[in-house]
Every structure is written in C-alpha cells, then in structure tokens.
Design brief:
201 residues; alpha/beta; D-Maltodextrin-Binding Protein, domain 2; 2 domains; six-stranded mixed beta sheet; 9 helices; 33% helix; binds 1-O-pyrophosphono-5-O-phosphono-alpha-D-ribofuranose
C-alpha cells in the first residue's frame, strides 16, 4: 500500500480531470465521491486530502509516500523531499499587484511572505511585509497595504477587486514529490502508480 497526499482545492479538481483524461476511473471515481472523510483507497493506493502547505510535511515525515502539490508551496518553505516530476496542470504565476497608479510600493501583504521577501530583496527595494492567510486582495482595498504578492491564475480575482498586475514574479505549477526513503523501500508499488498515471514510462 502506498499513500498519496493531495492538496485540497483547485489542484485537486485539476488532478481529477487529469485522471479522467487518462481514463483512470479507478482513481478519479473514488476521488469524486463526496464525503467528509479525509482519505480514500483504491486498490493499493490510499489518498489523503490535506491543505497544500501540509502536503510536503506529510511527505517529509513519511506519513505519505508521494505528494501532489503546487510549486508555490514548495518555493515558500524549505522541506526535505525528492522532486520526482512536474505535472501538466495547476499552471499559474506569482505577481506583484495593486491598485492602478501606484508609483512606489511601500507596504506589501502576502500569504507567501518568503517569496515576497526574496522578490523585493532581489529588486533591492525596501518594503514592509505583512503576512496574511488568504483573501489578500482585501489589503490594498482597505488600506492595510499598497500592494500584494499573490498567485494569479485567470486574473479574475484581481480584476473583480479593481487591482492590476504590475510584475510577474515566478511561474507556478503542480509537482509530484516523494519521500526520500520510501521512494526506494516501496519502489515497486510507487513505480506502478507513477507509471499508471503517466508520470514515468
Ligand atoms: C488564490 C489567490 C488569488 C486567486 C487567484 O486564492 O490567492 O486570490 O486564487 O486566482 P484567479 O487569478 O483565477 O482569480 P485562493 O482561491 O486559493 O484562496 P485564498 O485567497 O484564500 O488564498
């Protein structure tokens, strides 16, 4: 039995679509079942449903053998894992955004404080950073910050809140990671799953 940690939210829906395109109903079927249980099993594979930032924690501590998670999460904090593959979904990017006509950003709100810090350090621009846990678009609307560093996918959240993108920072996409030990000790089962889902030949 192997355990696969999945990020709940957008990436979860994208993964189901990916499985459906590959006619892997044995996996997409169980993942689509609506219930409040936080794990499900199909054959030799147990899926657990976690918050994105917790996926690499489960993988690092070998509670999960494999994780499917956005590169945003992996870039924001340091974890120990094997980087197995990029996945062809979950594409979006980090951007610096704010209301129109900002000439110089002084206070930035972000859920991704480390990525924001690195970006402004690289730009050699001193800003004050405020860490929020979500809905960061509220910060410039309410005057808490004059800009945000956040993920942009379709761009509709920015548009609907009267914000514009000033600069693209970094591409983001789904990645498949594995535990450094069990990737080898459970090699056969892991390879079988990765081959089924088309990650390896
Ligand atoms: C993310 C991100 C933006 C939005 C961008 O938020 O933080 O708010 O999606 O997507 P869009 O460009 O397609 O509109 P998420 O929905 O993950 O929730 P959060 O605000 O709680 O982080």
């Amino acid at each position: 039995m192997i355990t696969v940690a999945l990020s709940k939210g957008r990436l979860f829906d994208d993964f189901i679509k990916y499985l459906e395109e590959k006619n892997l109903d044995k996996y997409s079927g169980v993942l689509k079942e609506k219930s409040r249980t936080l794990y499900t099993t199909s054959g030799n594979v147990r899926f657990i449903f976690a918050k994105g930032p917790d996926v690499p924690v489960y993988v690092e501590r070998s509670v999960a053998d494999i994780g499917i998670v956005g590169s945003d999460t992996l870039e924001e904090d340091a974890f120990s894992y094997l980087n197995v593959s990029e996945l062809p979904f979950g594409q979006c990017h980090f951007a610096l955004a704010g209301p129109p006509n900002i000439e110089r950003f002084e206070t930035i709100a972000s859920k991704y404080i480390n990525i924001a810090r690195k970006f402004f350090n690289d730009e050699q621009q001193a800003v004050s950073l405020i860490h929020l846990n979500g809905s960061v678009e509220l910060a410039p609307i309410l005057g808490l910050a004059d800009g945000i560093v956040d993920i942009v996918q379709t761009g509709s959240t920015l548009r609907d809140n009267g914000l514009i993108e000033y600069q693209k920072i970094l591409d983001v996409q789904a990645r498949l990671i594995a535990n450094k030990q069990t990737f080898y000790t459970k090699e056969d089962d892991i390879y079988e799953f990765l081959s089924e889902i088309g990650v390896i030949e």
